[in-house]
Description:
Layout: H1 16-33, H2 37-48, E1 53-59, E2 64-71, H3 75-84, E3 102-105, H4 110-113, H5 116-126, E4 131-138, E5 142-146
Antiparallel strand pairs: 1-2, 1-5, 3-4, 4-5
Helix pairs in contact: 1-2
Amino acid sequence: MRxxxxxxxxxxxxxxxxxxxxxxxxxxxxxxxxTAWDAFLEQLGVVTRSEIVPFLVWDYGRHDxxxxxxxxxxxxxxxxxxxxxPKNAYVRQDPRLQTGxxxxxxxxxxxxxxxxxxxxxxxxxxxxxxxxxxxxxxxxAYSVHLSPL
Length: 149
């Protein structure tokens, strides 16, 4: 987890309500024009004190995930994640997250703690373990997640 950024000199830091409104503004711009996704994910990382913020789709039929966007990972790390996605213990949890649900998943949770995904990729390569899992949409076939780590 990283500390929140300090406010510029002479300005007070935005409060929680202002941070949420700022996030919503970025989210609407991203959804409408497709131009603010990186800014939205970066700000979501600041608000949640997260190191990385993936936006991904999980396909339950293929047992595989696809990263739509992630901040701040470089393209080579995103490509590396694609190889590890089928082992993503956070998304493969039971019971599944349903649309609108948010759950804090600790790296100490039994289904994550001993997983290859955490111990061989996520922790050594990215340096994180806890996940604020949020489900944007869920069907029998797939789910869409914003998951600050």
